[in-house]
Amino acid sequence: MPDSPDTAPVFRARWWALLTLGLALGHTAVTVTRLPYAALLPIAAGWLILAKALRWGAPPAGSSPARVWPWSLVPLALWGVYVYLADSFGDVDLGAVFFHLQAGMSEHGGTDRILAAILYTLAMLPVLAAFTWLVRVDPRWRLAERLLALVLLAANPLLYGLGQRGAAIVTEDGAWLDRRYVPPTLRTVPAEPPNLLVLYLESLERTYADRERFGDAYAPLAALGRRGVVVEGIRQLDNTGWTMAGMIASQCGTPLMPAGLLHDSQFEPLARVVPGVDCLGDLLDAQGYRLSYLGGASTRFAGKGRFYTDHGFDRVRGRETLAPRLDEPDYLNSWGLYDDSLYDFTREEIRHLEAQGTPWAVVTLSLGTHPPAGFPARACRERQGAFDGEDILYAVECSAWLARRLVEWLEAEGLLEDTLVMIASDHLSMRVSAWEALTEGPRENTFILLGNGLAPGRIVREASTLDLLPTVLEAMGFRPDRHRAGLGVSLLSDQPTLVERHGLTALNGRLKEETALQQRLWEGLGHLPRPEPKAVNPNR
After folding, report:
1. CB of 23 within 8 A of CB of 44?
2. Most exposed residue of 61, 139, 194, 278, measured as fewest CB within 10 angstroms of its CB?
3. Mean pLDDT, residues 221-230
4. How far apart, in whole angstroms, are the C-alpha atoms of residue 198 and residue 341?
């Protein structure tokens, strides 16, 4: 007796293949859009209903499978790469991918993402096998899939971004941003320059201040802000959305455009980081400041150590130098030091610098809110209770409280007299447990200034992290040329910012076409000369 349709091997293979493709389609849809993850199953079900109605995988009687390889296998695999990146980081920034490949990714703490990459690779194998089966058994899919391959390539944001960067070399105006760049110059200097403490809080954006969505997670920073100047409206431009890019944007006044083909040794780590521009460290070093950087992660990751060493910093310390000094050597997370340990070393560093009798600047970078779940310190677990390992708001509250505690400790010791304190997120958060709430509306970075005689207040401007450099300089009592430095404008002045003049969308469009600013950043490292800029009114 022949097999019934319900038990025939072909029948079973058909529905296993279609189910695999439906689940893959659903996962892709909810990952690259803002659809809730609960939409995965309805999307997969809709695919199966459509497949049944059109009898996909059930060819007419008498047709036989063709042993062909689909043209769409490579485009599908590239979509797998893009979905992995979107699942890991939320918004995929190609600039971050290129820069990390060139600057070096050794000693990173993203072991969870390596595991995810392995799982994604394994998951793609049945997807590719299912699609191959469908194309071989169904002649209609064999006819259509070549066109599908072209659609998949054209629609992949990863390849679209590559195409845009490639088109920049033939764009009509690839120097629009470079013509608006103003080299940082200090026209006046205070008689007694203040010290500077910069606290970069990993991914701790000001969006978390919305109590309706996030409760009191941001409350410790809000309390600090009431004592100083809080700036609202700090948006994120492209090429400023990862740690090195965020620090370079706020210290150099320019987006971080990767070296790309300007780098002579394409497969070797960068020998220098943005050598063609002066940054905050260069300016303060020229004024006789003692400069120190402390971070919980390795300074060898993504060129952090090279950047700070190249731009005037005397002492650059990260996991490799700080971890051996811990009282408990095992009190580490996958990236490096917990924030309470980092801030203990920060206090020691400031005590050391204060004893020198010369102006100092200390820059720190926390790890506590690093996606996807953060690394809450032991001090917070004792204060906040058990951590479930997933809730980013727990880590946000922890990081905010530790930053406030550090400032209060330093004040109590008298170490912040004649000191400006800058508290800022290095960039907006990548994908975390609160992702849907974070992406409900416009987002903004944290930027708070305390001390040095600043009257408490609130500034609401449409700006970007490019504007932090001239703003900090003016808050310290320096006067940059025309209130400008790099592409930034002091938010303490009435000069309009680039975002106010042109909007984020237009600026991001210009970034995709820019070549001259890229060459300026890497002048001295690459082999292409920087073109002479055309005359332009920098206020336009």
Report:
1. yes
2. 61
3. 97
4. 17
Across the chain, how many H-helices and E-strands are there? Answer: 21, 12
Closest-CA residue to 473 (of 239, 289, 225): 289
Q: What's the pTM value of the predicted model, to 2 decimals?
A: 0.80
Beta strands in 29-163 (DSSP E): none
For domain 181-260+269-503, which CATH number applies: 3.40.190.150, 3.40.720.10, 3.40.50.1100, 3.40.190.10?
3.40.720.10
Residue pair 280/331 in contact by the 8 Å Cβ criterion: no
Contact 108, 335 (CB under 8 A): yes
Amino acid letter, 145: E
Q: Measuring CA to CA, which residue among 208, 309, 236, 238 is closest to residue 464? A: 236
CA 53 from centre of chain? 44
| Lookup: tokens for 537 | 């009114």
User: Phi and psi at residue 61, in whole multiples of 5°?
Assistant: -60, 140
Q: How far apart are CA 188 and CA 391, in angstroms?
A: 47
Report how far residue 378's alpha carbon sits from residue 109's, in angstroms, rounded to the nearest whole number: 19
pLDDT tier for residue 3 given thresholds of 50, 70 and 90: very low
Residue 480: phi and psi, rounded to 5, are -70, 155
Q: How far apart are CA 269 and CA 99, in angstroms?
A: 10
Give the pLDDT confidence score for residue 164 in this predicted structure: 45
Overall average pLDDT of the 360-368 stretch: 97
* Domain limits, the chain: 9-170, 181-260+269-503
The single residue listed with the structure tokens 């073109």 is 531
Rounded CA separation 363/472 (Å): 13
CB under 8 Å to 228, separation ≥6 — which residues?
421, 448, 449, 450, 451, 454, 456
Spatial contact of 499 and 507, defined as CB atoms under 8 Å apart: yes
Spatial distance between the Cα atoms of 404 and 315, rounded to a whole number of angstroms: 24
> Left, alpha or beta for 84 (phi > 0: left; psi -120 to 50: alpha)?
alpha
Q: Is residue 523 within a helix (H) or strand (E), and if so which, with residue range? A: none
User: Length of the chain, please?
Assistant: 540
79-115, pLDDT tens digit by residue? 888 887 777 666 666 666 666 555 555 555 555 667 7
Largest CA distance in the chain: 100
Signed CA dihedral, 164, 169, 170, 176: sign only: positive
Question: What strands lie across the sheet with 229-235, from one edge to the other?
Answer: 315-317, 290-295, 360-365, 195-201, 419-425, 447-451, 229-235, 457-464
Tokens for 352, please give them: 């050391």
Helix (H, G, I), strand (E, B) or coil at 336: coil
